Amino acid sequence: MGSQSKKRVSVHDIQLAFKQNQLTSRQLLEFYLKQIHRLNPILKGVIEVNPEALHLADKADSERNSKAPGSLSGLHGIPILLKDNIATKDKLNTTAGSYALLGSVVPKDAGVVTKLRKAGAIIMGKASLSEWAQFRSESVTNGWSGRGGQGKNPSVLSADPCGSSSGSAISVAANLVAVSLGSETDGSIVCPSSSNSVVGIKPTIGLTSRAGVVPISPRQDTLGPICKTVSDAVYVLDEIVDLDYNDKATIEASKHIPHGGYKQFSEALMIEFKQALNKHLKELVASPVRTLADAIAFNKKFSDLEKIKEYGQNLFLEAQATNGSSNKEKAALQYMARLTRDGFVKLMIEYNLDALVTPFLRPYGVGVNSVLAIGGFPGITVPAGYDNKGVPFGICFGGLKGSEPKLIEISYGFEQATKIRKPPSFKP
Q1: In CATH, what is the architecture of 3-265+408-418?
Q2: What does the angle CA 194 – CA 155 – CA 428 come to, to the nearest 5 degrees?
Q3: In contact, 416 and 264? CB cutoff 8 Å
Q4: Which of 46, 155, 184, 192 is the most buried (most CB within 10 A)?
Q5: What is the pTM of this model?
Q6: Neighbours of 425 (CB within 10 A)
Q7: Contact between 97 and 151 (Cβ < 8 Å)
Q8: Cα four-point dihedral sign 91, 94, 95, 97
Q9: PANTHER family from the entry (predicted)?
Q10: HSE-up of 121 (CA within 13 Å, CB side)?
């Protein structure tokens, strides 16, 4: 299989090539590593490559040759990039893009990583992101982190790659990998997917486990796939959804998982971030920082290293100032619950709608992500076009909790009818 054909293949195509002995996992991984070596110095989509990746590829090839159970389907033998806030208990770091967590030791794999490993996926490395998932400072540029540098949009290098799952979207768009995983609290999957002309699925809150992920808000955080096509994203979604007792939200949300899988079709955040992050840092086996206060002190100490004089950390400071019980914070939570009940939910039920459809042409599409975020609702972004400068934009299909099957049908239909996506041009 030549490099040109690799640029267009889907997960299904890769699995077919595996079965027909036209491609090995090692060959596929080596192709992606060459792509990273060639393009990542410019794009900054990958923050770290797994030193054990080639060994894992050889292991996958061996399992396939021996026809081990599960080795001829799904994500087996396929490399995947994880956003650098998703814990892996291996030789990779998990830092949320910050030097403050470099060298920290996680207690175990994140829940979704456990499922990916069980499916036979190759953890190729960590994707860059907006540092601390865009929750360090409002002045931080989308796609920038201390460790990773400034991520670039492969279609137009000067264009906004959006965040915080910027590296996950950049890497898929530039064919540094076919499959990646991102996380979203408010727009962090759907926006970078739109900006980089790829497909992103933001699942219903709790449909995918957040255990082992550097948190912002347990009420809004969710993990989902970023890929080139709806079909590929669904492949990944099928592998990572399930009940996980390490994340209680999955107990309720697991009832939304359809039998047979899916292939068949801001201010209140401050207190939540502080509490959730402090809990996460406390559970690390080893870490240079143990609390949000430690991270703030680290950033002050190493201001030159992290360009903190340019970007600051106002969100960190505001979160640290919360105490978890103020009437203002409680009122904000009640207000968001009322907005959800009397706004989006009421609209969808009264008009018997399958989906809310919104173009994600910035700045006009910004906002729909917040509607979905505060209510824990799912959304799927699909490439929809390019502006007069060649910058991509997407269209977002959002629905009520558990409506992923219908959203997949609609977004897949739109994708197949338009087929608008094209390879990035790397314009200045």
Answers
A1: Alpha-Beta Complex (3.90)
A2: 140
A3: no
A4: 192
A5: 0.92
A6: 11
A7: no
A8: positive
A9: AMIDASE (PTHR42678), C869.01-LIKE PROTEIN, PUTATIVE-RELATED (PTHR42678:SF36)
A10: 28
CA–CA gap between residue 340 and residue 370 (Å, rounded): 10
Pairing status of strand 79-83 against strand 179-184: parallel
pLDDT per residue as tens digits for the range 110-152:
999 999 999 999 999 999 999 999 999 888 899 999 999 999 9
Residue 381, token pair as written in the block: 């972004």
To the nearest 5 percent, what fractions of the chain are helix, strand and coil? 40, 15, 45
- Label the pairing between strands 199-202 and 222-227: antiparallel
Beta bridge partners of 226: 180, 200
Going by C-beta distance under 8 Å and a sequence separation of 6 or more, which residues neighbour residue 276?
Answer: 215, 216, 217, 218
What is the DSSP track for 110-159?
A: -HHHHHHHHTT-EEEEEE--SHHHH-S-TTSPTTEETTTEE---SSBTTS
* CA angle 350–355–356, rounded 5-degree value: 85
Q: In the chain, what are the domain boundaries?
A: 3-265+408-418, 271-327
Q: Which residues of the chain have pLDDT under 70?
A: 1-8, 266-267, 303-311, 324-325, 361-367
Cα-based angle 156, 9, 151 (whole degrees, multiple of 5): 30
Contacts of 134 (CB under 8 A, 6+ apart): 140, 142, 163, 164, 188
| Neighbouring residues of 5: CB distance < 8 A, sequence distance ≥ 6 | none
DSSP-assigned letters across all residues of 221-252: -EEEEEESSHHHHHHHHHHHBS--TTSTHHHH
Other CB atoms within 10 Å distance of the CB of residue 284: 18
